[in-house]
What we know:
Layout: H1 5-8, H2 12-16, H3 54-64, E1 70-76, E2 79-86, E3 88-90, E4 95-96, E5 103-104, H4 110-122, H5 141-144, H6 149-153, H7 177-189, H8 205-219, H9 223-232, H10 245-250, E6 258-260, E7 266-268, E8 286-287, H11 289-300, H12 307-314, E9 318-319, E10 332-335, E11 340-344, E12 347-356, E13 359-366, E14 371-377, H13 384-394
Antiparallel strand pairs: 1-2, 1-14, 3-4, 5-8, 6-7, 9-10, 10-11, 11-12, 12-13, 13-14
Amino acid sequence: MTHEPSTSRTSRRSVLGLLSSVPVAAGLLAAGRPAQAEASTSRSIPADLRPGGKFDRFVADQAAKDLFSGVVLLAYRGRPVLRRAYGMANKAASLPNRLDTRFDLASVTKTFTAVAVAQLAQQGKIAFHEKIGAYLQGFPAEIGQTVTVHQLLTHTSGIGRPAVGTEPPTRPEWDTVQKLWDGTAKAIRALPPQFTPGTQYRYSNDGFFLLGEIVATVSGRSYHDYVREHIFTPAGMTRSDFFTKPQVTADPTIARPYATQRSGPRVDFTTSDFFPFVGGPHRGAYCSATDVLGFVRALRNGTLLSPAYAELFTTAKMIMPLSEQQGLTRQHLFYGYGFIDAIVNGRHVVGHSGGSAGAANNLDTFPGQDWVAMILGNYDTPIAPIVEMARQIIT
């Protein structure tokens, strides 16, 4: 089957149309039917968010129409209220998605990179005002001595390719972790700046890759190992990792990404030469929904960061353009440091979205209301309607 990598990828704008403001017993039912659910008995939980309620019925309808495949999880005060699994993790092998299936988080991975930077900043090893040339080599002076860590974190650095909807360059011959890492780093250094640093907001995967490079340089560990040791392990994220392409294709607990081609059908993107060998600081961590909830808990309870640094990184720094809000009701939308901070119906919503070929995810946390709403999917069909319904009911 012929693949169309240039058209099957979800564009950055459409990804942000899925956007968050701003990470078991399993069922084995067929696609389009719920695998399992758990409910909380708290009387403060709206009926519309309980099993069988308005939100539950809507997601089931989206899955029945083949518009959604994946897991949804609603949690209140850290405890799951509703968990559902729909669709297939591997269509060729007839393996359904389960509550413990691991999904490609795409750009939700940026929250892990942000926390890694925050941890090192908290230790005094990274300074937000510092120029990237203090940590990384190989840049011309107009970049290395001008762009700051703050600008990388807020997508105001000017670093990255100008076209919306592209990701850091990957090539089929980058077939090891080191080749992909070195090749991406070299390609980013060859790019001219898009604009004068600090003068615009323009979402940059490349900028977050450089943050991962800084984490590795400062910590003395590879980026992947640092995240494993300092985020996944302390947060109890036992089913999370940066899996390589051979691991993804061999593991039945990892959902295959089904990318939409221009001609209409969805295809398993792992069969494409353009499927990246491994994820990195900008995208591509694999996690279960329960692990992402564990990440949120650890971020809230001081396990990963002090409360002051957690608040610093998750709150607004830069206003995001209206063009980045497609698919959701108009709202006040800001970017923090690797987290998106929005106001919906007068309430704060903090988290991140993630979308790429065969992936559509959204993590929303509602700090003032103790809710978490999570959608992890292995289709790239927009999930904005699901995100929007959860936000409107919760707020």
